């Protein structure tokens, strides 16, 4: 195995272009979710050849990762807000919260 093949083996093959990956990385949650639904429906409908099926699968994986990343960000913000609220609840209504 040459070094060129070794580096190719360590990186997953993908049919997505850099532009497509960048577009997915910038999508809002709702758009990523809707496009993921479309990719799943295309796969479920059948009639795609192997290359088309693999491409839909790759698109779906990228969209799912984007949507999950956005959900994780929202969850982290909610967790932080809840923790802040819990911390301030200890001093709510007391003179110390005016300090």
UniProtKB/TrEMBL annotation:
SUPFAM superfamilies: XseB-like. GO terms for molecular function: exodeoxyribonuclease VII activity. Residues 1-25 are annotated as: Disordered. InterPro entries: Exonuc_VII_S, Exonuc_VII_ssu_sf. Keywords: Coiled coil, Cytoplasm, Exonuclease, Hydrolase, Nuclease. GO terms for biological process: DNA catabolic process. Its EC number is 3.1.11.6. The keyword Acetylation does not apply. It comes from the Bacteria. GO terms for cellular component: cytosol; exodeoxyribonuclease VII complex. Gene3D superfamilies: Exonuclease VII, small subunit (1.10.287.1040). Belongs to the XseB family. NCBIfam families: PRK00977.1-3 (NF002139), xseB (TIGR01280). This is Exodeoxyribonuclease 7 small subunit. It comes from Bifidobacterium bifidum. The lineage of its organism: Bacteria, Bacillati, Actinomycetota, Actinomycetes, Bifidobacteriales.
């Amino acid at each position: 195995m040459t070094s060129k093949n070794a580096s190719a083996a360590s990186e997953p093959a993908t049919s997505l272009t850099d532009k497509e990956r960048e577009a997915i990385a910038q999508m809002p949650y709702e758009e990523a979710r809707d496009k993921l639904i479309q990719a799943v429906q295309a796969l479920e409908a059948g009639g795609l050849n192997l290359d088309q099926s693999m491409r839909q699968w790759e698109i779906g994986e990228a969209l799912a990762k984007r949507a999950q990343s956005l959900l994780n960000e929202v969850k982290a913000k909610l967790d932080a807000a809840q923790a802040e609220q819990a911390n301030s609840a200890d001093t709510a209504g007391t003179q110390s919260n005016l300090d």
